[in-house]
Amino acid sequence: MARSKKDTSAEDERKANLRKDIDFVEHTWPAEKLYSHFGCTLEKGLSSEQVLINRGKYGENRLTPPALTPWYIQFLLQFANFFAALLLAGGTLCFIGYGIDTEKDQTNLFLGIVLYAVVTITATFSYLQEAKSEKIMEGFKNMIPKKCKCIRDGKNTVVDAWELVPGDVVDLLDGDQVPADIRVMSANELKVDNSSLTGESEPQDRSTDLAKDSQGNLVMQPLEASNLCFYTTIINSGSGRGIVIGSGDRTVMGQIAGLATETSNEASPINVEISKFIQLISAVAITLGVVFFIIGLTNGTDIIQNVVFMIGIIVANVPEGLLATVTVSLALTAKRMHTKNVLVKNLEAVETLGSTTIIASDKTGTLTQNRMTVMHVWVDNETYLCPAGKNIPDLAVLSQTPADEPYYDASSPGFKRLLQVATLCNNAEFLTKNDDGSYMDLKAEMNNPNFNILKQAATGDASEQGLLKLVQPLNDALETRAACPKIFEIKFNSTNKWQLSIHSQGAGRPPLLVLKGAPERVLGMCKSYFAKGEVKEINASYNKTYTEAYEGLGGRGERVLGFAYKELTGMKDDFKFSNKPAPNFTMNDLTFVGLISLIDPPREGVPEAVIKCNRARVKVYMVTGDHPITAAAIAKQVNIISQENIDSGDAIVVKGDTIREWTEIADPVEQQKKWDAALDHKQIVWARVSPAHKLLIVENCQRRGEIVAVTGDGVNDAPALKKGDIGVAMGIAGKDVSKEAADMILMDDNFASIVNGVEEGRLIFDNLKKSIAYTLSSNIPEIAPFLIYITAKLPLPLSTVLILCIDLGTDMVPAISLAYETKEADIMDRPPRNAQTDRLVNFRLISFAYLQIGMIQALAGFFVYIIVLNDYGYAPNILMGNGLEWFKHSVMCTINGDGSPKECGFGCEGEDWERGYCEGGCQVPVTSEVDPFIEFTSAGFRGDGEYTCNRACSNYASIPSDKLTDAEKARFDTLCAIDSTWGFADRGFADKEAIAPAGAMYFWNGQPQPLPNKNYQSSALEYAQCAYFISIIIVQWADLLICKTRKLSLFQQGLQNDFMNFGLLFETVLGATLVYTPALNTVFGTRPLHILHWFPAVPWSMFIFTYDEMRKAIMRQNPDGWLNSYTYW
């Protein structure tokens, strides 16, 4: 039932609201307002009555599943596309033709079955590629928590997560999955993993208050708010209690799920290209079929016969094997990409990646390693480059590698002290084990050049792991910690923003206090600093130097930590250290050691891959939820933005707040101008963006005609992954939801693999053009026989069944083999193809396939057809006009001594008419001066058959007229006394006692000649049709070779494509099998062709090859000439 305008408007408004930014305000309310609004208290939670009231108001804590189309309806819809409908209609007409055919010719039945099979197989494959929404929602369901702890009626209770309502008071513990969107009301060192929502790899602190930005303003946006925990995220550490403020669809995750399921899949460029081509070719097929159906009717042809041949014209026009060829070619490329760590889910995505004009890439884990790594240290009042080494040999190589910055001095006392503090004030530990389960001796492994400490698993947060991996190649962490065991600790919290631990230094030495944390907090607790082995008092000069270093490292997007220490003189190891209610030891006169900065570094190969994209004119956008400064720093390192473009204004960093301002502009035209102004920049970084922002970025790029590839690994990426022309998910770090929404999965999470995919995508487009050019070339020699049959009444040179043998048989493997062609030299130096103008099938390709190669192939087919019929006694000049009556009548004569007319020629009832001469058959005695057929040699066109009907031939004089052929029907007979270039020497001669092979050519030799009966006429035509079929195979040899390249000579490209060489052999062997296998002769209407009849097409094949080599040579010599403009496809 159709929806009302009001319903439609409401639905459109709902979808528009999904694209708006998260608009929670409850996290900004005072606690009293929150309690009052939801009817709860922190101590008692909700009452049972209030739970029911709130559930009636807000609903259950479930995600609303999308309206799904039943699977059987989805399957049936695959049969509704134009191409499928066309073939189904053709198949149905074939069945009708078979049903009303009194002779029950099996050809129509076989053809109908094949057409139905082609449609069914194609529809099944298409169905299996669809229905993503259901899988995506299943992915969301898998993420939903099952149980949670809450307070109701003043009692602690455990309930199913779906039972929660806004106002419920929920306890959050370490490792819990957050069961709804929750406002934090109390927190104890609470941290949450928001990576699936924002892409931030670091655990985020949660407290009861809103955090402040660098200008001191409260952070109000929900995704950045420090007092909110979001549905399905994970409590990383600590504990807390909060109030549910959003449930089900009203959560952030609910909005993302709504976006993912409401977002439509974009039709892939290759799908659009193939659909347009099918529509074009189908329109041509139907038009030709109908036109020639009408012509046939005006010529008086039987209507059933007209219907059958109209089907033949349609079948000849439509390349039934094209869809299978495209599918197999894409599958082969997908298999090749799998070896490059790219798993292709949607085959059409292979080509889409090649058409991509913009890659919108996530930062963390895709462009970067998703592993915090030390980059710099500031020690002894100097900033040093401090890359973490894989092992000791690697560290030695790094220290000798030229760089723009000085390397650290490992022998410096200040650096040694910094390493000691970073090792002790650190809870990270390696988990590396041997094969037997025992912990590995990392100190020994550090000397192994094949060992990589950076890839070893460890406990602790990302920054502490980064510090530990810096330390290990320099000083074994276990030895350092064993020398100074920990005796007291204050863990990091969001209020202090530092971590402190106290360690024993052994007998006779005071305990050692070490501290790390936010540099400004750590420095504020210090009165002195350690530099070049000396402790000095902090002064203004030092503060200035420190500030410049700190801001410089922070400006690079690096996370900076400060380090300090103090020997607790006068205290002993057995002292009962405590910080409750206040520290019982001094913390205000520490010694500052220095700074260590970390960053999630670019993946190996990414900067080069981005340069490769730039060269290929593919823009790379960074789209991240991370801080703008960090995003810009990484973007510079991986070449997404350059200093040159920053200075010229061609590079821009767009913040989520800016997008939020654009969405609030009421005038859509003005809003669009804002987007266009940003998207006009050559290089763009999008930072601090939400899932809705990411979707808007993709949609606005597509509005401008861009083909957008989107990468992502989190739940927040699912809507954009689905909306993009191609979605690329991460195989290692990716969530199930993002993998379901994507078309392609990077098994190594490496951006460089996407660039490999771009190259493969461009290659498959080039190769598909070659494959289609090859496939279409045979359309003209398939169509022409039907057109000539209808217009000139030439006996049909090629049957419909043999057309299918070409399209679905001999042409398939050679066409697929073109998918194995290697790339052209300029494949990544040219811009992406323009999806609006650079078509898969353009006029130049049609001209090449139809008007050039196809016409030559058709001429070759007709030439061979005429040669063979001539060899079987039917001269060219008697063929025209006789097609409609071929083998429909008998030539009658009088047997000597018997006055009754009988069918003349080979065969008697019950005898093998095709191979033997029947002695009882009619023979006409002739002399060397008389040829009984000479009077019929001019019986070529309609009406000339009256020679026979008028009994002008003396040999028919005694036959009553009612026994002869109807005067209104055209006549034909064999023409003797004609020799042929392609005749064969071992032809037999017939007389009363000799055996005459049916393959013999009958010519004047002074011997009695048998008249051909209608069975012989049928057989002769089948030999000629078989020869036409073989001629197409032979000219397709040359066509396959010339389609290997579009401009290069075959002698330049070579024959290295082994699968293509196999394809040449395959089509030849398959053709011979169809011709020389008796059982297949019956099924396909073929005949065992004489070997000499393979050769008439060879000169035509050589001509095709020579013609195209000359065309390409001229194009190479004159790249700007008209030949290149009009024939380079």
Automatic annotation (TrEMBL):
Domain called Cation-transporting P-type ATPase N-terminal: residue spans: 25-99
Q: Kindly give the membrane topology term recorded for this protein.
A: Multi-pass membrane protein
Which Gene3D superfamilies has this protein been placed in? Calcium-transporting ATPase, cytoplasmic domain N (3.40.1110.10), Calcium-transporting ATPase, cytoplasmic transduction domain A (2.70.150.10), Calcium-transporting ATPase, transmembrane domain (1.20.1110.10), HAD superfamily/HAD-like (3.40.50.1000)
A single Gene Ontology biological process assigned to it is: potassium ion import across plasma membrane
What residues form the membrane-spanning segments? 75-98, 110-128, 277-297, 303-332, 841-868, 1020-1038, 1059-1079, 1091-1107
Q: Name one GO molecular function term.
A: ATP hydrolysis activity
Location comes to: Cell membrane
Family that this chain belongs to: Belongs to the cation transport ATPase (P-type) (TC 3.A.3) family. Type IIC subfamily.
Q: What is this protein called?
A: Unnamed protein product
